[in-house]
């Protein structure tokens, strides 16, 4: 699995870092917004034994729920940003943006 960020994602992460300090991401396999990557101040989301550290995204740890990781482990992910407001506690929401995942099955 490879996790990368688009240029607009990188810019938003840098803006959020300037406002909130160090950040972290968590990707669960939940429904609705639970399937979107969520951005939190570093340490404010408590990761547990069912979470996997899958990447460093622009200097931020990117965790994924183990069940979701098992489904996506052979998928390359690109984290992107779109206009709009998600119904979550993710830090980008007040900016009128939301993080999304674009995926592609890994090639051999």
Write a brief caption for the model:
By secondary structure, the protein is of the alpha/beta class. The protein has helices at 7-20, 66-72; strands at 3-5, 23-27, 38-41, 51-57, 60-65, 75-83, 97-105.
Which ranges are low-confidence, i.e. pLDDT below 50, for 5 or more consecutive residues?
A: none
- Overall shape: globular
What is the strand content?
A: 35-45%
Biggest sheet descriptor: 4 strands, mixed
Distance between the termini: 12 Å
Following the backbone from N to C, one meets helices and strands in this order, namely: EHEEEEHEE
* Class derived from helix and strand content: alpha/beta
Number of strand segments: 7
Instruction: Work out the radius of gyration.
Output: 13 Å
Mean pLDDT: 90
Overall helicity: 10-25%
In DSSP terms (H or I, runs of 4 or more residues), the helix count works out at 2
Main β-sheet, spatial strand arrangement: 3-2-5-4
Written account of the structure:
The protein has 108 residues and is an alpha/beta fold. The chain is 19% helix and 40% strand. It has helices at residues 7-20, 66-72; strands spanning 3-5, 23-27, 38-41, 51-57, 60-65, 75-83, 97-105. It has a 4-stranded mixed sheet. Pfam families: DUF779 (PF05610). This is Acetaldehyde dehydrogenase. InterPro entries: DUF779 (IPR008497).
Topology (elements, then pairings):
Layout: E1 3-5, H1 7-20, E2 23-27, E3 38-41, E4 51-57, E5 60-65, H2 66-72, E6 75-83, E7 97-105
Parallel strand pairs: 1-6, 2-5
Antiparallel strand pairs: 2-3, 4-5, 6-7
């Amino acid at each position: 699995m490879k996790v990368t960020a688009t240029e607009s994602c990188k810019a938003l992460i840098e803006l959020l870092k300037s406002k909130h300090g160090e950040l972290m991401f968590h990707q669960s396999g939940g429904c609705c917004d639970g399937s979107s990557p969520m951005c939190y101040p570093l340490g404010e989301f408590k990761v547990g034994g069912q979470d996997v550290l899958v990447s460093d995204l622009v200097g931020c740890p990117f965790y994924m729920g183990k069940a979701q990781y098992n489904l996506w482990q052979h998928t390359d992910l690109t984290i992107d940003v779109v206009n709009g407001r998600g119904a979550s506690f993710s830090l980008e929401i007040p900016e009128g943006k939301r993080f999304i995942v674009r995926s592609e099955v890994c090639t051999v």
